[in-house]
UniProtKB/TrEMBL annotation:
Lineage: Eukaryota, Metazoa, Chordata, Craniata, Vertebrata
Record's keyword terms, sorted: Cytoplasm, Cytoskeleton, Metal-binding, Phosphoprotein, Repeat, Zinc, Zinc-finger
UniProt main location, coarse: cytoplasm
Gene Ontology terms: cellular component: cytoplasm; cytoskeleton
GO MF terms held by the record: guanyl-nucleotide exchange factor activity; zinc ion binding
Locations listed in the record: Cytoplasm, Cytoskeleton
InterPro entries: DBL_dom_sf, DH_dom, FYVE_RhoGEF_PH, PH-like_dom_sf, PH_domain, SOS1_NGEF_PH
Occurrences of domain PH (ranges): 222-304
Gene designation: Fgd2_0
Full protein name: FGD2 protein
Length: 304
Protein backbone atom coordinates (compact mmCIF):
# COMPACT_ATOMS: atom_id res chain seq x y z
CA UNK A 1 0.00 0.00 0.00
CA UNK A 2 1.36 3.39 -1.05
CA UNK A 3 1.51 5.98 1.77
CA UNK A 4 -0.52 9.10 0.90
CA UNK A 5 1.67 12.00 -0.30
CA UNK A 6 0.61 14.34 2.51
CA UNK A 7 1.61 11.77 5.12
CA UNK A 8 5.08 11.50 3.60
CA UNK A 9 5.52 15.25 3.93
CA UNK A 10 4.22 15.23 7.50
CA UNK A 11 6.75 12.48 8.30
CA UNK A 12 9.49 14.52 6.68
CA UNK A 13 8.50 17.44 8.88
CA UNK A 14 8.75 15.19 11.93
CA UNK A 15 12.15 13.76 10.91
CA UNK A 16 13.66 17.17 10.13
CA UNK A 17 12.24 18.48 13.42
CA UNK A 18 13.95 15.67 15.33
CA UNK A 19 17.27 16.47 13.63
CA UNK A 20 16.70 20.17 14.27
CA UNK A 21 16.09 19.61 17.99
CA UNK A 22 19.37 17.66 18.13
CA UNK A 23 21.11 20.64 16.52
CA UNK A 24 19.52 23.06 18.99
CA UNK A 25 20.58 20.75 21.82
CA UNK A 26 24.14 20.94 20.56
CA UNK A 27 24.02 24.74 20.40
CA UNK A 28 22.33 25.32 23.74
CA UNK A 29 23.30 22.40 25.97
CA UNK A 30 26.81 21.81 24.62
CA UNK A 31 28.37 24.92 23.06
CA UNK A 32 26.52 27.56 25.09
CA UNK A 33 26.64 25.65 28.39
CA UNK A 34 30.31 24.72 28.18
CA UNK A 35 31.49 28.11 26.93
CA UNK A 36 29.48 29.73 29.71
CA UNK A 37 31.00 27.44 32.33
CA UNK A 38 34.50 28.40 31.20
CA UNK A 39 33.59 32.09 31.00
CA UNK A 40 32.46 31.97 34.64
CA UNK A 41 35.92 30.81 35.69
CA UNK A 42 37.20 33.97 34.00
CA UNK A 43 39.68 32.12 31.82
CA UNK A 44 38.29 32.53 28.31
CA UNK A 45 35.95 35.44 27.57
CA UNK A 46 33.52 37.63 29.50
CA UNK A 47 30.16 35.96 30.24
CA UNK A 48 28.44 38.85 28.50
CA UNK A 49 30.13 37.91 25.22
CA UNK A 50 28.93 34.31 25.40
CA UNK A 51 25.39 35.55 26.09
CA UNK A 52 25.58 37.91 23.14
CA UNK A 53 26.79 35.16 20.82
CA UNK A 54 23.97 32.76 21.65
CA UNK A 55 21.20 35.35 21.95
CA UNK A 56 17.92 33.60 22.87
CA UNK A 57 18.89 30.11 21.65
CA UNK A 58 17.82 28.59 25.01
CA UNK A 59 14.20 29.68 24.58
CA UNK A 60 14.16 28.42 21.01
CA UNK A 61 15.59 25.05 22.08
CA UNK A 62 13.16 24.65 24.95
CA UNK A 63 10.17 25.48 22.81
CA UNK A 64 11.05 22.92 20.13
CA UNK A 65 12.25 20.16 22.44
CA UNK A 66 9.51 20.38 25.06
CA UNK A 67 6.55 21.50 23.02
CA UNK A 68 6.60 21.35 19.24
CA UNK A 69 8.47 18.07 18.71
CA UNK A 70 6.40 16.06 21.27
CA UNK A 71 3.14 17.46 19.81
CA UNK A 72 4.24 16.51 16.32
CA UNK A 73 5.23 13.00 17.46
CA UNK A 74 1.79 12.54 19.05
CA UNK A 75 0.10 13.63 15.83
CA UNK A 76 2.09 11.19 13.70
CA UNK A 77 1.40 8.27 16.06
CA UNK A 78 -2.34 8.96 15.76
CA UNK A 79 -2.17 9.66 12.02
CA UNK A 80 -4.26 6.68 10.93
CA UNK A 81 -7.28 7.67 12.99
CA UNK A 82 -6.64 11.44 13.00
CA UNK A 83 -4.61 12.60 9.99
CA UNK A 84 -3.80 16.22 10.84
CA UNK A 85 -0.89 18.52 11.74
CA UNK A 86 -2.40 21.92 10.87
CA UNK A 87 -3.60 22.61 14.41
CA UNK A 88 -0.15 21.97 15.92
CA UNK A 89 1.54 24.23 13.39
CA UNK A 90 -0.94 26.98 14.21
CA UNK A 91 0.23 26.75 17.80
CA UNK A 92 3.83 26.90 16.60
CA UNK A 93 3.48 30.02 14.44
CA UNK A 94 3.23 32.73 17.14
CA UNK A 95 6.30 31.36 18.90
CA UNK A 96 8.37 31.69 15.74
CA UNK A 97 8.50 35.42 16.48
CA UNK A 98 11.26 34.48 18.93
CA UNK A 99 13.43 33.91 15.88
CA UNK A 100 13.40 37.62 15.05
CA UNK A 101 15.84 38.31 17.84
CA UNK A 102 18.13 35.39 16.97
CA UNK A 103 18.23 36.17 13.26
CA UNK A 104 18.82 39.88 13.85
CA UNK A 105 21.72 39.02 16.13
CA UNK A 106 23.27 36.42 13.82
CA UNK A 107 25.88 38.56 11.97
CA UNK A 108 26.99 40.16 15.21
CA UNK A 109 27.34 36.71 16.80
CA UNK A 110 29.55 35.40 14.02
CA UNK A 111 31.66 38.54 14.23
CA UNK A 112 32.07 38.06 18.01
CA UNK A 113 33.20 34.46 17.55
CA UNK A 114 35.89 35.61 15.10
CA UNK A 115 37.08 38.55 17.19
CA UNK A 116 37.26 36.62 20.45
CA UNK A 117 38.89 33.58 18.85
CA UNK A 118 41.72 35.93 17.87
CA UNK A 119 41.80 37.67 21.24
CA UNK A 120 41.52 34.59 23.42
CA UNK A 121 43.32 31.36 22.46
CA UNK A 122 41.62 29.37 25.30
CA UNK A 123 38.24 30.39 23.86
CA UNK A 124 39.31 29.26 20.39
CA UNK A 125 40.66 25.98 21.78
CA UNK A 126 37.46 25.16 23.62
CA UNK A 127 35.39 25.72 20.47
CA UNK A 128 37.84 23.60 18.47
CA UNK A 129 37.59 20.81 21.07
CA UNK A 130 33.82 20.72 20.88
CA UNK A 131 33.95 20.84 17.08
CA UNK A 132 36.10 17.69 17.08
CA UNK A 133 33.33 15.67 18.75
CA UNK A 134 31.34 13.22 16.70
CA UNK A 135 28.10 15.11 17.36
CA UNK A 136 29.48 18.11 15.43
CA UNK A 137 29.91 16.04 12.25
CA UNK A 138 33.04 18.01 11.28
CA UNK A 139 31.08 21.26 11.05
CA UNK A 140 31.96 24.58 12.68
CA UNK A 141 30.01 26.38 15.39
CA UNK A 142 29.10 29.08 12.84
CA UNK A 143 27.67 26.43 10.55
CA UNK A 144 25.48 24.97 13.30
CA UNK A 145 24.35 28.46 14.27
CA UNK A 146 23.02 29.08 10.79
CA UNK A 147 20.43 26.31 11.20
CA UNK A 148 17.79 28.32 13.16
CA UNK A 149 18.11 31.10 10.56
CA UNK A 150 17.14 28.63 7.85
CA UNK A 151 14.41 26.81 9.78
CA UNK A 152 11.42 29.11 9.18
CA UNK A 153 11.81 29.11 5.39
CA UNK A 154 12.01 25.31 5.63
CA UNK A 155 8.70 25.12 7.53
CA UNK A 156 7.17 27.33 4.89
CA UNK A 157 8.31 25.06 2.03
CA UNK A 158 7.23 21.83 3.71
CA UNK A 159 3.85 23.22 4.65
CA UNK A 160 3.24 24.63 1.17
CA UNK A 161 3.93 21.17 -0.21
CA UNK A 162 1.70 19.57 2.39
CA UNK A 163 -1.25 21.85 1.58
CA UNK A 164 -0.77 21.22 -2.15
CA UNK A 165 -0.90 17.44 -1.67
CA UNK A 166 -3.92 17.39 0.68
CA UNK A 167 -7.08 15.87 -0.81
CA UNK A 168 -9.81 18.54 -1.17
CA UNK A 169 -12.02 16.87 1.46
CA UNK A 170 -9.22 16.34 4.00
CA UNK A 171 -10.22 17.22 7.59
CA UNK A 172 -6.90 19.09 7.89
CA UNK A 173 -7.40 21.44 4.95
CA UNK A 174 -8.80 24.45 6.82
CA UNK A 175 -6.24 24.26 9.62
CA UNK A 176 -3.30 23.63 7.33
CA UNK A 177 -4.14 26.58 5.08
CA UNK A 178 -4.50 28.86 8.08
CA UNK A 179 -1.20 27.56 9.49
CA UNK A 180 0.57 28.23 6.19
CA UNK A 181 -0.73 31.79 6.16
CA UNK A 182 0.53 32.33 9.71
CA UNK A 183 3.97 30.91 8.94
CA UNK A 184 4.12 33.04 5.80
CA UNK A 185 3.40 36.17 7.85
CA UNK A 186 6.10 35.32 10.39
CA UNK A 187 8.66 34.65 7.65
CA UNK A 188 7.77 37.93 5.98
CA UNK A 189 7.87 39.71 9.31
CA UNK A 190 11.31 38.43 10.21
CA UNK A 191 12.68 39.31 6.76
CA UNK A 192 11.16 42.79 6.93
CA UNK A 193 12.58 43.27 10.42
CA UNK A 194 16.05 42.29 9.22
CA UNK A 195 15.83 44.61 6.20
CA UNK A 196 14.67 47.49 8.39
CA UNK A 197 17.45 46.85 10.91
CA UNK A 198 20.03 46.87 8.13
CA UNK A 199 18.64 50.07 6.64
CA UNK A 200 18.84 51.87 10.00
CA UNK A 201 22.26 50.46 10.70
CA UNK A 202 23.60 51.69 7.33
CA UNK A 203 21.94 55.05 7.81
CA UNK A 204 23.55 55.46 11.20
CA UNK A 205 26.99 54.69 9.78
CA UNK A 206 26.47 57.38 7.11
CA UNK A 207 25.40 59.88 9.76
CA UNK A 208 28.57 59.21 11.73
CA UNK A 209 30.68 59.75 8.63
CA UNK A 210 28.96 63.12 8.23
CA UNK A 211 29.59 64.14 11.83
CA UNK A 212 25.98 63.74 12.99
CA UNK A 213 24.64 67.12 11.94
CA UNK A 214 21.34 67.53 13.75
CA UNK A 215 19.15 68.64 10.89
CA UNK A 216 20.29 65.69 8.76
CA UNK A 217 19.76 62.80 11.17
CA UNK A 218 16.32 61.43 10.38
CA UNK A 219 15.48 57.72 10.65
CA UNK A 220 12.98 57.88 7.79
CA UNK A 221 15.66 58.84 5.27
CA UNK A 222 16.79 56.33 2.76
CA UNK A 223 20.29 56.40 1.31
CA UNK A 224 20.05 55.76 -2.43
CA UNK A 225 23.62 56.24 -3.62
CA UNK A 226 26.92 57.75 -2.56
CA UNK A 227 30.27 58.29 -4.15
CA UNK A 228 33.13 60.60 -5.13
CA UNK A 229 32.60 63.30 -7.73
CA UNK A 230 34.67 66.09 -9.28
CA UNK A 231 33.52 69.69 -8.94
CA UNK A 232 34.21 71.82 -12.01
CA UNK A 233 35.36 75.34 -11.52
CA UNK A 234 34.72 77.32 -14.69
CA UNK A 235 36.82 80.23 -13.48
CA UNK A 236 40.16 78.48 -13.56
CA UNK A 237 39.19 75.40 -15.58
CA UNK A 238 40.11 72.95 -12.84
CA UNK A 239 38.36 70.21 -10.85
CA UNK A 240 38.41 69.36 -7.17
CA UNK A 241 37.43 66.16 -5.36
CA UNK A 242 34.03 66.20 -3.64
CA UNK A 243 31.61 63.55 -2.39
CA UNK A 244 27.86 63.13 -2.83
CA UNK A 245 25.23 61.40 -0.72
CA UNK A 246 21.87 61.06 -2.42
CA UNK A 247 18.93 60.40 -0.09
CA UNK A 248 15.27 60.03 -1.00
CA UNK A 249 14.68 63.65 0.04
CA UNK A 250 18.01 65.47 -0.23
CA UNK A 251 21.38 65.58 -1.93
CA UNK A 252 24.35 66.27 0.33
CA UNK A 253 27.33 67.87 -1.34
CA UNK A 254 30.37 67.19 0.85
CA UNK A 255 34.07 67.84 1.11
CA UNK A 256 36.29 64.97 2.29
CA UNK A 257 38.14 65.98 5.46
CA UNK A 258 41.92 65.86 5.35
CA UNK A 259 42.32 65.23 9.06
CA UNK A 260 39.87 62.49 9.93
CA UNK A 261 38.85 62.99 13.50
CA UNK A 262 35.30 61.81 13.99
CA UNK A 263 33.63 62.64 10.72
CA UNK A 264 34.99 61.82 7.27
CA UNK A 265 33.09 64.56 5.47
CA UNK A 266 32.05 68.14 5.92
CA UNK A 267 28.60 68.89 4.51
CA UNK A 268 28.98 71.96 2.30
CA UNK A 269 25.57 72.06 0.77
CA UNK A 270 22.26 70.39 1.23
CA UNK A 271 19.93 70.40 -1.76
CA UNK A 272 16.30 69.32 -1.58
CA UNK A 273 15.37 66.66 -4.09
CA UNK A 274 12.04 68.39 -4.54
CA UNK A 275 12.39 70.79 -7.46
CA UNK A 276 15.92 69.57 -8.26
CA UNK A 277 16.90 69.34 -11.93
CA UNK A 278 19.75 67.43 -13.56
CA UNK A 279 20.99 68.32 -17.03
CA UNK A 280 23.78 66.68 -18.98
CA UNK A 281 26.48 68.93 -20.44
CA UNK A 282 28.20 68.23 -23.75
CA UNK A 283 31.65 69.51 -22.78
CA UNK A 284 34.43 68.08 -24.96
CA UNK A 285 37.20 69.08 -22.56
CA UNK A 286 35.40 67.61 -19.52
CA UNK A 287 33.43 64.46 -20.40
CA UNK A 288 30.65 63.02 -18.16
CA UNK A 289 29.74 66.43 -16.82
CA UNK A 290 26.30 67.53 -15.70
CA UNK A 291 24.51 70.37 -13.95
CA UNK A 292 22.54 69.86 -10.78
CA UNK A 293 20.32 72.80 -9.97
CA UNK A 294 18.10 73.18 -6.96
CA UNK A 295 16.38 75.96 -5.03
CA UNK A 296 19.65 76.56 -3.19
CA UNK A 297 22.16 76.76 -6.07
CA UNK A 298 23.59 75.12 -9.17
CA UNK A 299 26.59 72.78 -9.24
CA UNK A 300 28.68 71.76 -12.20
CA UNK A 301 29.92 68.21 -11.61
CA UNK A 302 31.98 65.58 -13.39
CA UNK A 303 31.54 61.85 -12.83
CA UNK A 304 34.20 59.21 -13.34
Amino acid sequence: LQEPEEKKIALELLETEQAYVNRLHLLDQVFYTELMKEAKTGKTVPEEVVKMIFSNISSIYQFHAEFFLPELQKRMEDWNCNPRIGDVIQKLAPFLKMYGEYVKNFDKAVELITTWSEKSPPFQELIADIQKRKVCANLTLQHHMLEPVQRIPRYELLLKDYVRKLPPQSPDRGDAEKALEMIFMVAKHSNAAIAEMERLQNLWVVYQRLGLEDDIVDPSNELIKEGPIQKLSTRNNSTSEKYLFLFNNMLLYCVPKVIQVGAEFQVHLRMDVEGMKVRELKDTEFPHTFLVSGKQRTLELQAR
